[in-house]
């Protein structure tokens, strides 16, 4: 079974940066879309970004210009680079994988086949 493990979360001051990693095992990453989600206290989980198997990207309006998603299929790893962090970015961040097969632009908004355990990101002064 495909498994995903996030890392890189932590406590950072407003304006700071973090880089999250998502290591995938059990399958090669080539044919999967990778979504990044976050869930703040008292709020529903929302999609932050997604990268399709072809490298196409999608971002939530709240993070455009600040976050960058990338992937290295050879390393079976996806990344979320977060710059200019704000307190409202605080939450548990998850990576998720969804099989797109030949649909190389596939990036679901919410429904994914596999989910990581999450990593806490706290932005506070």
Write down the overall geometry: globular
The low-confidence parts are: none
Percent strand equals over 45%
Q: How is the biggest beta sheet arranged?
A: 7 strands, mixed
**What's the count of strands?**
11
Distance between the termini: 40 Å
Round the mean pLDDT to the nearest integer and report it.
94
Binned, the helix content reads: under 10%
Instruction: Give me the strand/helix succession.
Output: EEEEEEEEEEE
Number of DSSP helical runs:
0
Radius of gyration: 14 Å
Structural class: mainly beta
Structure description:
A hairpin with a 4-residue loop joins strand 7 (67-72) and strand 8 (77-82). The protein has strands at 3-7, 10-12, 18-25, 32-39, 46-51, 57-59, 67-72, 77-82, 91-99, 114-115, 119-123. It is an all-beta fold and 125 residues long. The strands form 2 sheets. Strands 2, 4, 5, 6, 9, 10 and 11 form a 7-stranded mixed sheet that branches. A 4-stranded antiparallel sheet has the order 1-3-8-7, with no helix packed on it. The radius of gyration is 14 Å and the shape is globular.
TL;DR of this structure?
The chain is mostly beta strands. The protein contains no helices and eleven strands. A hairpin with a 6-residue loop joins strand 4 (32-39) and strand 5 (46-51).
